[in-house]
Design brief:
335 residues, mainly beta, Jelly Rolls, 2 domains, eight-stranded antiparallel sheet, globular
Amino acid sequence: MAASDEFFAAKENLITPGAPTFVPHTFDVKGQVYDGWETRRRRGPGGALPDRSVRDWVIVRLGAPGVIRSIVVDTAFFTGNYPQACSADACSLTGYPSAEEVADGPGLGPSGWQEIVSRVLLTGDARHSFTVSSKRRFTHVRLNIFPDGGVARLHVHGEVVPDPALLEGITVDLAALENGGDIVACSDEFYSSPRNVISPGLSRVMGEGWETRRRRKPGHEWLVVRLAGRGVIDLAEIDTSRYRGNQPEAASLQFMDAGEDVTSATLAAGSGWRDLLPKVRLLPDTPHRLRVRGAPATHVRLNIFPDGGVARLRLYGSLTEDGLAGVRRRWEETG
């Protein structure tokens, strides 16, 4: 959203999905081109080294409100121009404040910015991972670098905490990451992450879906989605867009109504599941929209026969009363 300085390389590069790249001896009018965020050199009075408190900063609005578990600060390819140290703060805001409002501080409330990563030294061309212990829900993160320099990527890992007001009384995608769904078990993820199938937006290339290796033994591949909350699904979409020649031959859906203490072994086992959608044939490069007759469920299992790739899985429905109560409780506990 905002940065104190981005003279050499733009702040938006920090959240580019792909891994950073570097092409030596590639120059523009400001110097060597870097795939990251880089600020100009700071100077103290008379050209001396700046005070230890001098910093540059960048503010990122998270994709969804959530509890942060770890932060990754990657200085890939920054070898003589990386920051000496960094720290990170976070805050929780309602609505959609402007970059100026977030940077200047008004509206942050009594708690304001909360430090979630204390100042720590960095090294060049390295991936630094920092554990975050706070159990609060946050919407924005501020990365501080001391005194200046370049960072290739910033990753903020955590768990989405959906706003119950946005899920109450309407049909939503109960599988979506942005609504609090997640992948909790999977048989194979050789080519790409199963979380891709519940990610926002459409897949732009084949690598943005979930694809398994070629199966050479009996059986089939599968993944399990933990829904945003206990709910009833009315419509499913199994999208094979971009998969031509490597889409599954068929797919089916099953559901389970389980408590919060359900084990991974139970979810991975073939027993205990009930049919939500019988096996249907899949076409290549096609969004398949299918009505289903569901009952209250907390988990859904996508089975693909025998293997292949799926771009997106959408499970449209509504939360039950106890499902909505669970979402509200989580929201209040992290507020």
